[in-house]
Specification:
- With about 280 residues, the chain is mainly alpha-helical.
- It is about 65% helix and about 10% strand.
- The chain has twelve helices and six strands.
- The strands form three sheets. It has a two-stranded antiparallel ribbon with strand order 1-2.
- A hairpin with a 3-residue loop joins strand 3 and strand 4.
- Helix 6 packs across helix 10.
- The longest helix is centred in the last third of the chain and has 28 residues.
- It is globular and about 55 Å long.
- About 40% of the residues are buried.
């Protein structure tokens, strides 16, 4: 909890208060985001014992650690140890590792089981390029198909994130970012496109969060969101799509710089992340 001085006055800021305001704007999505944002890779309570949800939480937590370099290429991910760490049965742990393998973040090797995979920077940039085109399609359709209330909700959602930027809360902003993009997927009013966009985003979630920790990236992200919202509010789908493409490719650049900084911080020259500039596909 902290006090912020905004406009000459003082307001009390907490993550709960910010996401509380977001929930009034986009309740179904923000509930999901707050639920995810609360996971720190520790024990889970019996109230969270729904296994499909547990497997997704484990997957996201491990994906974040892989993207940040906390789990390095070649690190063994033993199913039993993963289950013990998160306080679950082996079933959700097994499912989480299976999903990570499908996302190319984990490899299943003979006699070694699951290990953290090594991805090239080029492969990640390719994935960001694909994501940029998918999200450009979504925002273009949303610009033309949004109901007036949906436009107001998107604008309010974006405005709500200003307090997170002012507070310098990168973790909370990264979680908010998911709600912002999911709102755009929903506003396409095309369930299949929304499903595909979300699937691709989930596959890249750890890396999209990791790029937010590149210095000042989340502040620039806020400004880029503002430009996208402005185009959407005008109903200019082509401009919104152009700005969304630029937004995603800037995120790709931020990730590349983040990876370079992790490598530079390693005294022995070993990669502190699962990315390698020369890794073969």
């Amino acid at each position: 909890m902290m006090s912020l001085l905004l406009g000459g006055g003082s307001i009390l800021y907490t993550r709960r208060s910010i996401f509380g305001r977001l929930a009034h704007v986009l309740l179904p999505i923000t509930k999901k985001v707050v639920h995810w944002a609360g996971l720190k890779g520790g024990e889970m309570t019996s109230a969270q014992a729904d296994e499909p949800l547990l497997s997704e939480r484990i997957r996201r937590s491990l994906a974040d650690e892989i993207a940040s370099g906390a789990l390095r290429p070649g690190t063994s991910l033993d199913e039993q140890q993963v289950a013990q760490r998160f306080g679950t049965s082996r079933t959700p742990a097994r499912e989480a590792l299976r999903q990570l393998a499908m996302d190319e973040l984990v490899e299943v090797r003979p006699r070694r089981g699951a290990v953290v995979a090594e991805l090239s920077v080029e492969r990640l940039i390719d994935m960001f390029e694909m994501s940029a085109e998918m999200e450009a399609l979504c925002v273009r359709l949303a610009s033309y198909r949004m109901h007036p209330l949906e436009r107001v909700q998107l604008a309010r959602l974006h405005e709500s994130s200003a307090a997170l930027v002012e507070a310098g809360d990168v973790e909370a902003y990264a979680a908010f970012n998911l709600a912002f993009h999911e709102a755009i997927y929903s506003a396409t009013h095309n369930a299949y496109i929304a499903e595909q966009a979300l699937a691709l985003r989930n596959r890249m979630a750890g890396f999209r969060r990791a790029q937010m920790f590149e210095p000042e990236r989340f502040r620039r992200s806020f400004e880029e969101h503002r430009d996208i919202v402005d185009a959407v509010m005008r109903g200019d789908g082509e401009e919104a799509a152009r700005r969304m493409r630029a937004h995603l490719m800037k995120a790709a650049g931020a990730l590349e710089r983040h990876v370079a900084s992790l490598k530079a911080d390693n005294k022995h020259g070993e990669s502190g992340s699962p990315l390698s500039a020369g890794a073969k596909e």
